[in-house]
Amino acid sequence: MNDNTPDTAPEFHDRVVLITGGTSGMGLATARLLLDGGAHVVVTGRDEARLQRTAAQLAQASDGGARLLTVRADAASTADLDRLVSVVGDRHGRLDGVFANAGVGVFQPAAEVREEDFDHVVGVNFKGVFFTVQKSLPLLDASRGGASVVINASWTLHRGMAHAPVYAASKAAVHNLTRTLGSDLAGRGIRINSVSPGYIVTEMFRSVVPDPADREPLRAEVPLGRLGGAEDVAETVAFLLSPRSSYITGQDIGVDGGLVTVIPSVLNTSSTPAA
After folding, report:
1. What's the number of CA atoms in the CB half-sphere (13 Å) around residue 137?
2. Percent of the chain with pLDDT over 70
3. pLDDT exceeds 60 at position 4
4. Which residues of 190-201 are buried (b: 16+ CB within 10 A; e: fewer)?
């Protein structure tokens, strides 16, 4: 190969991607990965100070902020989403991808859930996801050669969790939304997929399980033997947003180290009887 042969263009060069709830955790890791790949990224959050911190953290990856736009918006507010889409339309004129990542959790038994807790969780995790996609449709339709939406769901679809009835139910709703929107929007060239993270060490995870010693039993449930990182999810989201997944829609990918599909090996396999 000639030394003067140019490098392959970054996978996301000149693509425009919206990430809701992108000021920490999986959203922030995905923003960084896409920026490294050449994308223009729009990040939302509800707190202006956190948005400013995010802009500082991503300054180098975004060419001094030239490829990053931060917008204060609450995913549960349709008025905020209307304003967000207007800002993105004025800036870029289109969206090539959306990571509907914004989510909240209220972790308590059913008897302790208040109506305001229920409304908050369902408002962000389900209503927010639905209207994020709906409001983005004009910009996604304007995309070149189709567009991709990834919804952040959860492994909790597959197991009952005594202390998370509303959270788990809201995530089950968006699992189904992935399939129904995948069917509805396929004719418009828009692919809809979801990721279901397992035990991922993020700010939310640390707030629920603050003591590292309490995380060990959770780690022991994971066949791959470790808790996940935000980057593990970001890599999968990037794949689903990229042209490499152009024939995938209506699907969910578990990013959980085998948590819900594989039993950890606790016995000597050589002595385990075959079925």
Report:
1. 12
2. 93
3. no
4. bbbbbbbbbbbb
By three-state DSSP, how is residue 9 classified? Answer: coil
Please tell me the pTM assigned to this model: 0.92
In whole angstroms, give the CA distance from residue 240 to residue 195. 9
Look at the block and give the residue holding tokens 């947003």.
Answer: 241
Alpha-carbon distance of 23 to 19, in angstroms, equals 9
Cα-based angle 217, 201, 22 (whole degrees, multiple of 5): 155
Band (pLDDT 50/70/90 cuts) for residue 162 is: confident
Q: Torsion over CA of 217, 223, 168 and 161, rounded to 10 degrees?
A: -40
Sign for the CA dihedral angle at 200, 243, 249, 45 comes to positive
DSSP class of 182: H
Q: Any residues with CB less than 8 A from the CB of 80 and at least 6 apart, and which?
A: 72, 73, 74
pLDDT at 1: 39
The catalytic site residues sit at 167
Q: Is the dihedral of CA 238, 239, 240, 244 positive or negative?
A: positive
**Tens digits of per-residue pLDDT, 92-144?**
999 999 999 999 988 889 999 999 999 999 999 999 999 999 999 999 998 88
Place of tokens 């003067």: 4
Q: What is the pLDDT of residue 7?
A: 43
Long-range contacts of 205-211 (CB under 8 A, 24+ apart): 208/105, 208/107
